[in-house]
Automatic annotation (TrEMBL):
It comes from the Eukaryota. This is Zeta-carotene desaturase. It is found in: Plastid, Chloroplast; Plastid, Chromoplast. It is an enzyme of class 1 (oxidoreductase). Residues 106-571 form the Amine oxidase domain. Pathway: Carotenoid biosynthesis; lycopene biosynthesis. One of its GO terms (molecular function) is 9,9'-di-cis-zeta-carotene desaturase activity. It holds the Pfam family Amino_oxidase. Keywords: Carotenoid biosynthesis, Chloroplast, Chromoplast, Oxidoreductase, Plastid. Catalyzes the conversion of zeta-carotene to lycopene via the intermediary of neurosporene.
């Protein structure tokens, strides 16, 4: 019996317009009155910005330096929960497979690399004109690099670093100071400074006991809460601690934290900005599992909280090397090809297998045939792709309990250096880059995390004769989604000056706005149970994506790990998939094909 998806007109990997997303990029000048500068200590790096040297940091690491991944990276294969960094797969000796992957984000490309390394044939289909999924970037008509979000690479991202080593992209990362910086109203700086003479867990204790982001009483209450958390067990029993953390998925982080002695002020001033940065929702709405998972890594691994950022845009620093590697291995990308329909048949014994994907590009239409099919989509994409009839299986039906979080990424270019807090003359000059070279958090703005890309990622974002390029991530973006872009920009610009009053004499010279209706899946309490495995009840149909079952949160690392897991399950099924191929070919031979075109 032949059947088709009910979502025949939907695309798995939809353009931004179909995700509720919009992109606006234009030049604009806002004149603002001069305000007296504020004087605060600042940490800045020594990154090269188009051959212009930036002021050196106060101490310790050379932040901003291009660094290999031999140092300042945690080993997540030791003294860590199993499965976070799988061992290298054994050499595959089964039959060669043809695999079709829908979605060319990190999960899809991670899957492709694993399969190509084992000698298989892989095609990736992406409905957008660019690849990368939630980590995508592209150039506008004026050559500006537009991003979908702000992307940082923590020291515990072993799977992503492994992938970058494979494709030769590790030189595209810039190391930042091992301190997490908070920008408060009026230009006041707070920080979690992990730099210490010794490592975990003492570096973390030092960071939390010495932070100036919290009052003394809040720090005491914070210590009580964390001392009674599974994070302590992780020091001696990481696997048991991970089980304890998974069991806390049903409660919010706020409920857990306050019930263990933590204060509401700690949540407001420190943990909410971090929760927004991690999952785009606050501590009242994010699962305790999500937050404590990250705390476990940061507490037990010295380098887990170290972060790097790309030297340039995601396209040039990450995706271009991935594309080259995949194509050099024989993989093929098909952009602007959307999946309109999953074709499948149900056998007499009730088993179901996919027989093809109906793919379209403009006026072209083809049926893609493969031995294995991988849906490497985000949450809204997989919901559009799945045939309605498949909801009779709990694994697929559970996906419909998940939803994405809206997010807006705003880029603002200025005619000076916004995050320079010490010297008004340095703010106004354009001869050299000045300011804070790091990821920045704030409890006093609607963008809880942001960075000056002209400093953090100068290769593509520093422009001679121009100043800061702030990239601000609005979370939660719900109140902003219906607003016109000009109003969003004006609101964000004013909040920037509330954080950096010393920059009020600067003018904004350019901006862009990217709206995404559903980005990361909402890691609310009780949602973890609904995340699907990469293996599905359909023998030749697999899932990949950071929302699928894996112990990292929805992140670049989670996407990469999900791709490794999906590929491993395909390889485990190699003989069965080859046998199914023979059965389908025999079935096709006995009944004439109805497809007009097959690839």
């Amino acid at each position: 019996m032949m059947a088709t998806s009910a979502a025949q007109q939907a695309l798995c990997s939809a353009p931004l317009s179909q995700m509720g997303g919009q992109v606006a990029s234009r030049s604009r000048h806002l004149q603002t009155p001069v305000a007296s500068g504020s004087s605060c200590s600042s940490f800045v790096g020594n990154a090269l910005a188009c051959q212009r040297r930036i002021k050196a940091p106060r101490r310790h690491l050379k932040a901003g330096a291009r660094a290999d991944l031999q140092t300042m990276v945690s080993d997540m294969s030791r003294a860590a929960p199993k499965g976070l960094f799988p061992p290298e797969p054994p050499k595959y000796t089964g039959p060669k497979l043809k695999v079709a992957i829908v979605g060319a984000g990190l999960a899809g490309m991670s899957t492709a690399v694993e399969l190509l390394d084992q000698g298989h044939e892989v095609d990736l289909y992406e409905s957008r004109p660019f690849i990368g999924g939630k980590v995508a970037s592209f150039k506008d008509k004026d050559g500006n690099h537009i991003e979908m979000g702000l992307h940082v690479f923590f020291g515990c991202y072993n799977n992503l670093f492994r992938l970058m080593r494979k494709v030769g992209a590790t030189d595209n990362l810039l190391l930042k100071e091992h301190t997490h910086q908070f920008i408060n109203k009026g230009g006041n700086l707070g920080e979690l400074d992990f730099r210490f003479i010794t490592g975990a867990p003492f570096h973390g204790l030092k960071a939390f006991f010495t932070t100036n982001q919290l009052s003394t009483m809040d720090k005491v209450q914070n210590a009580i809460a964390l001392a009674t958390s599974p994070v302590v067990r992780a020091l001696v029993d990481p696997e048991g601690a991970m089980r304890d953390i998974r069991n806390l998925d049903k409660v919010s982080f706020s409920d857990w934290f306050i019930s263990h002695g933590g204060s509401r002020a700690s949540i407001t001033r420190m943990w909410d900005p971090i929760a927004y940065a991690l999952g785009f929702i606050d501590c009242d709405n994010i699962s305790a599992r999500c937050m404590l998972t990250i705390f476990q890594f940061f507490a037990t691994k010295t380098e887990a909280s170290v972060l790097r950022m790309l030297a340039g845009s995601p396209q040039t620093g990450l995706h271009d090397p991935l594309i080259k590697y995949i194509e050099d291995k024989g993989g093929r990308f098909h952009v602007r090809w959307g999946c309109r329909e999953v074709q499948y048949e149900e056998a007499a014994d009730g088993s179901v297998r996919v027989t093809g994907l109906h793919m379209t590009k403009a006026n072209q239409s083809e049926i893609v045939k493969a031995d294995a099919y991988v849906a490497a989509c985000d949450v809204p994409g997989i919901k559009r792709l799945l045939p309605t009839a498949w909801r009779r299986w709990p694994l697929f039906d559970n996906i419909y309990h998940l939803e994405g979080v809206p997010v807006i990424t705003v880029q603002l270019r200025y005619n000076g250096w916004v995050t320079e807090l010490q010297d008004q003359a340095k703010i106004n000059q354009l001869a050299r880059a000045e300011g804070l070279d790091n990821l920045l958090y704030s409890a006093d703005a609607d963008f809880s995390c942001f960075a000056d890309l002209a400093l953090t990622s100068p290769q593509d974002y520093y422009k001679p004769g121009e100043g800061s390029l702030l990239q601000c991530v609005l979370t939660p973006a719900d109140p902003y989604m219906a607003l016109p872009n000009e109003e969003i920009v004006a609101k964000v610009n004013e909040q920037v000056f509330n954080l950096f009053p010393s920059a009020r004499n600067l003018s904004m010279t350019w901006h862009s706005v990217v709206k995404i209706g559903q980005s990361l899946y909402r890691e609310a309490p009780g949602m973890d149970v609904f995340r699907p495995d990469q293996r599905t009840p359909i023998d030749n149909f697999f899932l990949a994506g950071s929302y699928t079952k894996q112990d990292y949160i929805d992140s670049m690392e989670g996407a990469t790990l999900s791709g490794r897991q999906a590929a491993a399950k395909i390889l485990e099924s190699g003989a069965d998939l080859a046998a199914l191929r023979e059965q389908l070919q025999q079935s096709l031979a006995s009944s004439p094909a109805k497809d007009l075109a097959t690839v």
